[in-house]
Prior knowledge:
alpha+beta, 434 Repressor (Amino-terminal Domain), Beta-Lactamase, elongated
Amino acid sequence: MTSVDHASDRARPDGDGSANGRRGELAEFLRARRARITPTDVGLPPGLRRRTPGLRREEVAQLAGVGVTWYTWLEQGRPINASVQVLDAVARTLRLDQAEREHLYRLAEVPGIPPDTATVTVSPAVEEILASLDPLPASLTNGRYDVLASNKAHEDLFWAWHAMACENRNVLWCCFVELDARQRMLNFDEEMPRVVAVLRARFAQHLNEPAWTGFIRRLSAASPEFAELWARHEVAQPGSRTKHFLHPEAGLLRMRTTSLAVADMPETWITVYSPADDETRERLKLTRRG
């Protein structure tokens, strides 16, 4: 097995090498994960005179195919570069599960590669929460604004937004590509640049993921307006906003959006639409379809 020695993964001798902050946490995390694996777990002889439990640093480096110095400096919390591919090898050697792997990526300040959202399963508990929010429209979305689930009130509010069946189930695709949807969001020019800026900020954690890069490429091709906004490289944090919708039966609706993170589903949010005024609260009843 040869050691990895790509330029992007070489140790940088600059900096003071102190183990503090994020790098200090990374160092402690790696030492703890290394200590829980015995040599026999990975097919190595137990050996003699082991002062600490678990694998030695040089053994982790050998099994992962990385340089001993590079791994030692990584575990010491030094300011070195690490690619996703090399961290993947370390993660496999240390037998990290998905949560631990993503934690490793965050501490090492590189983008992680979680499972594609197409494999996400919405639990019955989350579906029950969505249903219990009715008559307030509510949906479950991920970081790309894919709609993973929604309640009946949400479906009633937005059912007429499409000239044809919606295949993408994505908020951005709907708003930028569907002409009917675009015409029904009255403050589109104010709200959608901010939504794109939030997407751009989230994209920084998914730079190497085909599901994300492919989505951006397809939407940019379908909507020159989205492509222009994306090219600005503006970033923003999500937050509560007021959106103005023109419903074919209910008329003008001013809806306040509030997003709630779902703890056991990383990068997913329940977005609740609340009437911003009494007039909207009364008109919202006219959106129901029985």
